[in-house]
Known about the structure:
Blueprint: E1 8-9, H1 10-24, H2 29-37, H3 46-53, H4 61-70, H5 75-78, E2 86-88, E3 91-93, H6 95-102, H7 113-128, H8 131-147
Parallel strand pairs: 1-2
Antiparallel strand pairs: 2-3
Helix pairs in contact: 2-3, 2-4
GO molecular function, one term: DNA binding
Pfam family, one: HTH_31
Organism: Nonomuraea diastatica
Amino acid sequence: MTGVGDGMRVEEAIGLQIARLRAERRMSLTELGEALGRYLDRPWSRQAVHQAERGQRAFTAAELTALALALDTSVPALFRAEGDRIELPGGAVSPEEYRGILLNRERNTPLDGVEELIIALHDIGEVLSRPALVRLARIGEVADQVASPEPHRT
């Protein structure tokens, strides 16, 4: 763990996921607030949803459950973060360590493969987009073209 101030707070990571999922589902702030009302004692106001998306509020377990239900996702998916260190009150954890806690580590528990697959695909995408690998892929393409040129047409 490193010092506080090195990354984003967990609430901000959750807020980014709420905003992303709401946009993907083409829901307005008001519509999400009303959907939450079906699972909580009352709906959230438009402003409350906006504050949540900006990471300006803490979440109860019931609220996280309602958000997952309203956004048709899982609770762990709400915690996803895109490569930033995550700040906790005592310090920040690495992106890898943070992603690791989202995976089910119990040997006897069936895996929920969707979250693991999403995280693995994200990691693969990051690796494949590295400039050195992109250059190697181009070199490989050129080598293939040189090794087997297209036949000349007559």
